[in-house]
Amino acid sequence: MQRIEGHGGELALAALRAYGVREMFTLSGGHVFPLYDAAHRNDFPIYDVRHEQSAVFAAEAVAKLQRRPGLAVLTAGPGVTNGISGLTSAYFNASPVLVLGGRAPAFRWGSGSLQEMDHLPLVAPVTKHAETVFSTDDIPRAVNAALTTALTPHRGPVFLDFPLETVFSVTDADLPAPPGIAPVEPDPDEVARAARLVAAAERPVIIAGSDVYAGDATAALREAAEALQVPVFTNGMGRGSLPPEHPLAFAKARRAALSGADVVVVVGTPLDFRLNFGDFGDAKVVHVVDAPSQRAGHVQPAAAPAGDLRLILSALADHPGDRVDHAGWIADLRAAEDAAKARDAEEMAAETDPIRPARVYGELRKVLARDAITIGDGGDFVSYAGRYLEPAQPGTWLDPGPYGCLGTGMGYAMGARVSHPDRQICVLMGDGAAGFSLMDVESLVRQKLPVVIVVGNNGIWGLEKHPMRAMYGYDVAADLQPELRYDQVVTALGGAGETVAKSADLGPALQRAFDAGVPYLVNVITDPADAYPRSSNLA
């Protein structure tokens, strides 16, 4: 164990670095100055934003993409409360984010210091661990314990705050070494039960979600699918686990698959609204999760192995018993997939004006590289992305996840650009979502972090306006300014952009955006009558 000396910020930074944390996202605040001082004097990059939620979303993007802790530093009171939506998204997405908060001084507690409030009751329900660290020499221990908790499956965010005198004081302290996080060993009997069900099924399907990527289990997923010859569908960061050209990779035949399957294997994603709450008719459900806490409580799966996903999937691949031939089932799904792709190709090539959202994605497919990071921040417009875009590699898709919080876009873009300086970063944003975070384009411009932003601008809250009108015959609070110039907002903030109203102009505009080298917004005027159904399985 190493002994170190310094103020609270220096002690925290030493513990953070031991876990591979390499950057800080923040919005300036006096309560956390020592953390900035430590970072500045140790060449530890600081990225600052215009709203604290963007700092937490940026940290979450790093955590998601790099499968390591992401760090946000927030000042006391409103700094922390402004970050709670980001913390909550990280909680639902199982992202190992650490938020370090400032806190009013403990020795004056109750006297009415600036921004004096107890954060823990607010953040505890949406974190795996929340703690106030009252002793300076306890900071390395607290950071070490919090990050270990964040990285232990089922992963998730953690929170620490430091009273003013704690983080400003100087002392010496022990720096504990990060403990190795042992894989969770699954029950071999439960794994064998799952393997027998899949091997004996005539029409099995695998649905793989975000934890497959987070648990570094994409290779094991492919191994299991190929060994058992099971078609694979994906959601969340599971997208790209099998490349689109893989013979077992499917995206368009989902309805045919889930209505015809006799066994559905759901791996690394909850049985929530995106999967009809685990109700697949007469099909038996095998729910594979990374920790016992993730087993569904509202359904009774036929098998529910819990543990390291790599171990479970590799065991499925190694199943020694007989296996049913699935060639006919795969051929049927491939026919449905090809037919759906043909329909989609027609829609993505539509020459209609006003522009249909499908055409936007048809043009994007032509310019996006295989390793591009695609970020969805929106409802109606981004729902189309889940249908028309097919990530070619794992770890290239970011969306808000099951919490569905808008405003992730600019924070995710910052975290993605920091994580992958040489890749295309493309944010897909509805005009409603643009209102949450577009000001943080200024943060991207100032810190020279170029990204492309494509706004689907239909002038409405599409997932609300059409359903409300269908239910009541009218709608309220569902209109935005039609044809608003979001590109001019980005230009005013130091970036660039343009508005596109005709289908034929889309391709050249997107190419200019990716060539620009600055934050560039393509503001696409889309048809407000063309709305995606609410039953979208985006995430």
What's the gist of this structure?
The protein has 539 residues and is an alpha/beta fold.
Account of the protein in words:
Belongs to the TPP enzyme family. InterPro entries: DHS-like_NAD/FAD-binding_dom, THDP-binding, Thiamin_PyroP_enz_cen_dom, Thiamin_PyroP_enz_TPP-bd_dom, TPP_enz, TPP_enzyme_TPP-bd. One of its GO terms (molecular function) is magnesium ion binding. With 539 residues, this protein is α/β, with parallel strands linked by helices. It has three domains: 174 residues, Rossmann fold (3-Layer(aba) Sandwich), CATH 3.40.50; 146 residues, Rossmann fold, CATH 3.40.50; 176 residues, Thiamin diphosphate (ThDP)-binding fold, Pyr/PP domains (Rossmann fold), CATH 3.40.50.970. It contains 22 helices and 18 strands. The strands form four sheets. A six-stranded parallel sheet has the order 3-2-4-5-7-6, with helices on both faces. The two termini are 43 Å apart. The C terminus is likely disordered.
